[in-house]
Amino acid sequence: MRKVLFFIGLMVAFGLGMLIWFYQAEPASKPTTTTIPPVPVISARQAILIDGRSGECIYEKNADEKGYPASTTKIMTAMVVLDICREQNISLKEKITVPKEAAGVEGSSLFLKAGEEKTIEELLYGIMLVSGNDGATALASQMGGKVEYFVDRMNEKAEKLGCKGTHFENPTGLFSENHYTTARDLADIARHAMKNDVFAKIAGTKNWKNYYNKNKTVYQYEGGNGVKIGYTRNSGRTLVASAERDGELMICVLLSDGNWFNDAYSLMDYGFKMKGCRDE
Predict the structure, then answer these.
(1) Radius of gyration from C-alpha coordinates of the chain
(2) Is 228 part of the annotated catalytic residue set?
(3) One of 61, 108, 118, 131 is an active-site residue; which one?
(4) Does residue 6 have a pLDDT over 60?
(5) Confidence band of 34 (pLDDT split at 50, 70, 90)
């Protein structure tokens, strides 16, 4: 009987010892395996994806090569208008008179008539959502004193932002060989623009009165909140797109890209996944 009890006690002790060894040997948590997402293949001639908060470059393709911004120019146009309003304490509700030079400007239009009055706010929504070239010309003329003076301010602001490969010749983005930028510069311009709450609100608006935003990013892409599209025959299709998810802001620029929206979504997907990998 004593032998049986001794044997049972020995087995129990052995079992307890094995359990203790097992739990001590088992790691507290299994290590996670992070899969880095594949880099997307895009068709843009020049492109960049940046962290909209820090400015960190996540992806680039010929980002410092000369390109043509088309109507994404109006990001800077709107920024300068808002600067002037702040400096001179001008309300966005203040009306300006449409000059003759603005009526009938070629390209995308708000169909403004010379002599009619529009608020600064209405023209800002008009240039950012509908891309009205007449609206951009009206704002530049009336708020800059002359279009030429306003364009000088656009170039001065670009220089202050550290843009090395950008030169503006007009407030609309109509093509000119001397009206150019780079994907990197344009991304930085957009990043600074989105820090302005008024600008960000306008750029992310889907509909405002009778204006419908041409930037499909704000409708199609989860978290899409801006910023501007552009197109001319010589410039090709250009897009500055932005989106915010869980506090992370992505901004991408695509110049001369026939697959502009799909490429933008692929790049921003990549950016959000990369951020997720780093946070794990």
Answers:
(1) 27
(2) no
(3) 131
(4) no
(5) low
The residue from 71, 141, 242, 266 that is catalytic is 71
In 3D, which of 45, 82, 90 has the Cα closest to residue 64?
Answer: 45
Q: What is the largest CA-CA distance in the chain?
A: 115
Concerning whether 71 is annotated as a catalytic residue, the answer is yes
Kindly report the backbone phi and psi dihedral angles of residue 229, in degrees, each rounded to the nearest multiple of 5, phi listed first.
-110, 165
Amino acid in the structure at residue 168? F
Length of the chain: 280
The whole-angstrom separation of Cα 117 and Cα 93 is 11
Cβ atoms 230, 257 nearer than 8 A: no
Range from 23-27, 66-70, 73-77, 80-84 carrying the lowest mean pLDDT: 23-27
Q: Which two tokens stand for residue 161?
A: 């932002």
d(CA 98, CA 118): 7
Predicted pLDDT of residue 275: 83
Query: Which two structure tokens, joined as six digits, stand for 172?
Result: 């609309």
Q: Is 74 an annotated catalytic residue? A: yes
Please give the structure tokens belonging to residue 195: 């820090």
Q: Could you write out the DSSP letters of every residue in the chain?
A: -HHHHHHHHHHHHHHHHHHHHHHHHS-SSPPPPPPPPPPPP---SEEEEEETTT--EEEEESTTS-B--GGGGHHHHHHHHHHHHHHTT--TT-EEEPPTTTTT-SSS-----TT-EEEHHHHHHIIIII--HHHHHHHHHHHHSSHHHHHHHHHHHHHHTT-SS-B-S-SS----TT-BB-HHHHHHHHHHHTTSHHHHHHHT-SEETTEE---THHHHSTTEEEEEEEEETTTEEEEEEEEEETTEEEEEEEES-TTHHHHHHHHHHHHHHHHHHHH-
